[in-house]
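Appendix B, record 7
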Amino acid sequence: MRLSAVLMMIITAVGLCAGTALAETKIVYANYLGLKHTTNPALERFFARVTEETNGNVVWEPHFAGSLLGGKDIPSGVRDGIADGGYMVGVFVPSEMPVDNFLTDFSVLNDDALALTGAINELVLLECKECDDEYREEFKVQHLGTYALTDYLFQCTSEIRSLKDFKNKKVAAYAAWAEMAKGMDAIPVNVPSAEYYEALDRGVIDCAIQSITNQRTRSMGEVAHNVILNSLGGYVGGSLMNVRLDKWNELSASEKTAVLKNVPELISDSIFNYINLDIEVRAEMEAKGNKFYEVDEDLASYIKNFRENYVKTDAPAKGKERGVESADEIGKTIVELRAKWIALLDERGRDPKTFQKLLWEEIYSKVPTS
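Structure tokens (predicted):
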């Protein structure tokens, strides 16, 4: 009897181990962010947390810095199964991702990265079927989250102070910022952000639009010594974290919950890295002689007026031109959600833990797991 009991225990243990091995789901993740980029460590921590909380059943194979797929190739590469998820950015493939490209037009509204992050994730995951369908139907992925960046600024190889100084300057710009550049008689150029350093260094572009952090993380401070402090908004849109539906559906409800519960910390880590680094990097680059300054009144007024008018009129119109059926409704919802999140943050607090809690309560606890 005792021998039989021992054998049964061994057989059960072996069976459990075999079941665990069979249950393991490996998710291949690709992004184009440079190896020094602050978001990559946040992703690695996210991967580790999920693997630990699923007892090793969900494992990740990350490929950063375009080592598997470049920015333009990630959406199709994920759809075709080269990767199981990745940083999908519609501005690189506007014809393939018209809805996400439309959302990016509202980047000019982003003067509060925390509020816009909450608004965009709530929009895509809970409020906008057309947004969700683009990921789910066209690319066969479950969108899980993204984040808005801190203020984007013109970073240039020469000192620019007025509207006339921008005439014929080549500016790496997309979406609304491309229209802004045209209005200044500059020439917008579509260059992936991973290539900004080389493009600036070789004179392919004269200015790029990025957050201060990229003076270090993309080494732009080595070639773009002039940073205009007038805010241009900050990038929103894309899908930093997503998982192919076939992989997502392999996960149990508890495993999906483990993923969802850890997304708020991934998002918060990514944003606060930018907030803190913007301060640190500016001080570092100023010490090296780079200039950070406000522009003359004519250019300052142009930038302010452009941002205000673009969201009201141009963004919805362009969305319709791209085939976004509910462009007006989506635009209205973004504005409403932004106001909601500003109010929540002002009431509850803007520290990382509070922000994570709000993301879970308002969004991720409501995402279906079955």
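Remarks on this record: The mean pLDDT is 92. The radius of gyration is 22 Å.
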